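User: Predict the structure for this protein chain, please.
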Amino acid sequence: MLKNCSSCGVQTRQYAEFPAPDTGEMIVRCTHCRKISNPYRTPAGLIGP
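Assistant: Here is the predicted structure, written as structure tokens:
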């Protein structure tokens, strides 16, 4: 299943998915963004590593 990375927007099959700590909405991170600690932003504005 392809999902879009929340950090870079690339569609990927290799990802980690977890709930945002502030809203519970699912965050998807591709392997590359996780490796380089590319930040993501939740819909409520929280920025994570």
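The chain has one helix and six strands.
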